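Quick start: what a row looks like.
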Amino acid sequence: MNGDNVLDVHDDLSARVRYYECDVTDTDDVNTAVDEIIGQWGRIDILVNNAGVARVGFFQERSPADTRREFEVNFFGYQRLIRAVLPHMRAQETGIIHNMCSGTADTGHAGLTGYSATKGAIKAFVRSLRQNSGTQTSRVR
């Protein structure tokens, strides 16, 4: 995926919209992107965790590496970004973390066993994070 659709909005609202490319599987890349945002804007108000990969195929046809890749992006990628922005949001005493999920987290899907598992893991993680934080720092949808 690229940021072409965001770049169109940026042309119209350049003072309010920026596009930062980031590999969510790379902690240094995540930290660099967050540092650039803080450097540019002085704060970070909203994180929308929307990165995702899905390897379609029945469980017996998929390799453990396929599922590891899905978890690396869909679960640990979300965690990396939350870990990077949460200290800033706590310091400014405000912020929204929105984690994109999927109905397959609740219902499952025969051809998306790994993807469904990652989305279920995110839902459980966010619920636990919310209880741990003492404030509502994230929502599950």
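That is the whole record. Confidence is low (pLDDT under 50) at residues 135-141. The first strand starts at residue 46 and ends at 49.
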